[in-house]
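Methods — Computational structure assignment.
A single polypeptide chain was analysed. Its primary sequence is given first, followed by the predicted tertiary structure written as structure tokens.
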Amino acid sequence: MSGVFSGNQWTTASGSTWRVVIEPDFVNQVAELCNHLSLASKDTRATCEKIVEQAQAVGDGSSDAGKQKEVVKSLVSLVEEKGINPGAEPRDIEGFANLAAALVEQYYGSSSAESSSQEAEQLLVSLSSALSKTQSTESPAVLSARYSALSSLFNSLPESAASTTRSNILLNLFQLAASKDDLAVLSNATSALPTWLSAEWSISESSEADKTMSRFVAALEGASDKQEAGEAIRRMLQAYAGENTAEELREKLVLYTLASGTAFDVEGLPKTSGNSSIAQLREIFQNGTLADLSSFSGDLPAPLEKEKLQEKLQYILLADFASQKIGAEISYDEIAAALGLDSSADPEDRALEVESWIIATIRVGLMTARLHQPTNTASIIRASPRSFGNEQWKTLQTRLESWKSSVGNILDVVGKAVGPAPSQQYQQQQQRQSAQHHDAQSIVHAAADHQQQQGETVEVA
């Protein structure tokens, strides 16, 4: 198709030439959008013909701005109801969205009336809703065009746009990406959303911000890739949740942190009221043991699994135990006891099991250690404690003082091996030269005195 927002008109040996329409008239703009929509179905075609007739009747006169607004509104309503032509090319989707948004801005956004501005934002939200309605058979290129169109629509909003307008357009992008498991598209948005809600969108009430965040969490939970969605939710809530955050969101943060295979900071999990399963599991991971988790009888909400929870808690407990032995060697038997492994098992089998737990804990980043298989011991280099309190601060102070003393001893040894510092050598050299000069002067004076004495002796004689 050719017209206002598309136009690969000619192809030459040196490339393609595009036709760009500068300030096209109102009727041509509406006709171009309707030509695109009419390809969807017969019903849509009939409605589009009526809209074009209305545009032709109105014309381009500025005195008919009110009627032009009605035409634009009818057009956007049709887009919201029927969606964009499913067979469109990627460039046509982006062009359609940009032209439709430009019409809304031209005939609604330029007005200083608050009601007109609100209506313009509602139309843009309706347009974003249409852009997010996708077909199951669409190509990746078409999906990418939808993402780009929604992103452009969101980024083109003026600073005065209401927070609800921003959140609704962004939410449509979230829902589209989640339905297609394209969560990588949302990486920047999920990182920025907590800041937008708390600082930039001028939401005066925290409860309103919590409701908005809950909608985005629900959108991500609709993805079929639960693991990736859970990680996105965890990162988003970790940057957002605080003491005054809604209970539901704090529980979601605890839930997805416990379900994560990469997040092990359980000390910072927010408190949740009541005696829910989430609250009990949070307490077990912060202060409990493997026995406490084994005896847990509450319901496990999805995506939590008992076996994975036990594995995660063992990593945390092993790292916590090793954090008390940094710089020392600990035996496999001590590690087996800390992990609650079967003490009656074959020694060789238990040693292999201990080594596998150490390696797995190193792999998830909770500690660094060296294994000594001949002696069945492990040298602990680094380990993360489950919590960091007074005891950990005291231990850290003791280690720092020990390291300070060790560094002082090393400096003394190095100083004795390489001699005095250059400044000291220079001072000593200056002192030696001064002493030699003094000695030379003494010899001269002594010789002069001796010669004078001889002269006096001769004269007396």
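Note: The chain has four domains: 1-161, 179-304, 313-388, 420-461.
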